Amino acid sequence: DLVRYHPTDKAGVLQDRRDHFGGNLSLTYNDPVMLVRGWKHHLFDEWGRPYLDAYNNVPHVGHAHPRIQSVAADQLKRMNSNTRYLHPAQTAFADKILSKLPDHFEVCFFVNSGTEANELALRLARAHTGARGMVTPDHGYHGNTTGTIDISAYKFNKPGGTGQADWVELVEVADDYRGSFKRNDPDRATKFAELVDQAIERLQAKGHGLAGFIAETFPSVGGQIIPPPGYLAAVYDKIRAEGGVCIADEVQTGLGRLGHYYFGFEHQGALPDIVVMGKPIGNGHPLGVLVTTKAIAESFDNGIEFFSTFGGSTLSCRIGKEVLDIVDDENLQDNARVMGARLIDGLATLKQTHACIGDVRGMGLFVGVEIVNPDRTEATQICSYVKNRMRDFRILVGSEGPKDNILKIRPPLTIDTQDVDMILWALNQVLSEVT
Ligand code: PMP
Questions:
Q1: What is the value of pTM for the model shown?
Q2: Which residue among 64, 257, 314, 400 is least packed, with the fewest CB closer than 10 Å?
Q3: Under 8 Å CB-to-CB from 123, ≥6 apart: which residues?
Q4: Of 214, 251, 258, 283, which is best to mutate to test ligand 1, by the most ligand atoms within 8 angstroms of its C-beta?
Q5: CA dist., res. 368 & res. 248, Å (int)
Q6: CATH number of domain containing 368
Q7: pLDDT score of 404
Q8: Range of the domain at 295
Q9: What average pLDDT does the segment 117-136 reach?
Q10: What tens digit of pLDDT does each residue of 60-73 get?
């Protein structure tokens, strides 16, 4: 104890964390960063050094947005309570969300996280169908609770995972770079979708009915994958034909990040029955939202009260609505489209000179760069090197994918031209060290 570090010293915080937190609470970067201030897409460490946040998709409208600070402070001064009392902020938030969705969505549920929204989606699908079985793409992630881990192959299939539940069937993720059907195959969307037929049959052979299908509309932890257009529409047709409910997890893709679309399912020409939102919708305040049809909400209204103490609190509703208003007022969806195109174009140019870039894919500010070995296999170590070197250049990017070889770039939607050019410049430098 005599050699205790000063509590705000990075090494001391790291040591305290190791002493008092679980070992599986992971830290990014070999030399972790400590961040104490933020502004838009910039972060500052304990020395005041700036970092470009090209990774965090939660501060959707930017870190420390003055309008979010102002509504949060205003509401906390007035009062903060739950959905058992009337408040216009609840209905105003619901109206705003529904204004962004097709008319068949009429009912909102407010919870505290993406996990909770997906957990609730499972309950709704089961209440509506009376069945238990779920089909979901491999390598998906939907949350950290018992129920959502069972539908998250990314978790249950890891060493130490609980394994695949009897009522879950996996389909190959619609990855047309590495998967069974490649980009040069014009029928790849249909071929990937047909895999769902066998999954439903396998469930039925085990005596399970079909409750539904859940997928990240663009699989993110699976490696920033953009399914071929029409894939989800074809899958949803098959699921509905067997009586199942189609759940679109838009936690990573929703609210304008894709630039061209407000939600990923629009790109797929698909209409889900349930849409799940999380992460960006509270800009850092814990908030999850599920929207669904009247019919499904009525099946769920089966005599048991639904209540979440904090879900749909006055404060949460004010913050959530403010986030969606800011996206509109600051034209952030448009900015995501323009900046995303600049970034993706630049990355495609880097691909021509750096052999370790196997694939560049993305839409708006949802971008993946697949790092490969000379034989095109997944270059996990090079990807880790690049991610850590980018941190030396004070640019924060992540990595993802089954083999952790896909650089993941998904900054707040406020990012500007110079920031995009800085990412490209630094990446060119770092890649020159490995190719
Ligand atoms: N769905 C997806 C697609 C996610 O990426 C995440 C979080 N990474 C979740 C659900 C779970 O959200 P939360 O961590 O807010 O519970």
A1: 0.97
A2: 64
A3: 300
A4: 251
A5: 20
A6: 3.90.1150.10
A7: 97
A8: 67-329
A9: 98
A10: 999 999 999 999 99
Any atom of ligand 1 within 6 Å of the Cβ of 253: no
Query: Could you tell me if the CB of 150 is within 6 A of ligand 1?
Result: no
- Are 127 and 79 within one domain? yes
Does one domain contain both 247 and 111? yes
Domain count for the chain, please give it.
2
Q: Is 114 in the pocket of ligand 1 (CB under 6 A)?
A: yes
> Is the Cα dihedral 54, 56, 58, 62 positive or negative?
negative
- d(Cα 86, Cα 64) in Å, to the nearest integer? 29
From the CB of 142, is ligand 1 less than 6 Å away?
yes
Separation of alpha carbons 261 and 226, rounded Å: 13
| 393 and 315 inside one domain | no
The residue out of 295, 329, 363 marking a domain boundary is 329
Tell me the ipTM for this assembly.
0.99
Q: Residue 158 Cα, ligand 1 centroid: separation in angstroms? A: 17
Atom of ligand 1 nearest to the CA of 114: 12
Residue 56 CB less than 6 A away from ligand 1: no
Asked whether 252 lines ligand 1 (CB < 6 A), one says yes
φ, ψ dihedrals at 26, nearest 5°: -85, 155
Q: In angstroms, how far is CA 304 from the centroid of its own chain?
A: 30
Residues 244 and 126 in one domain: yes
Q: How many CB atoms lie within 10 A of CB 76?
A: 12
Largest CA distance in the chain: 69
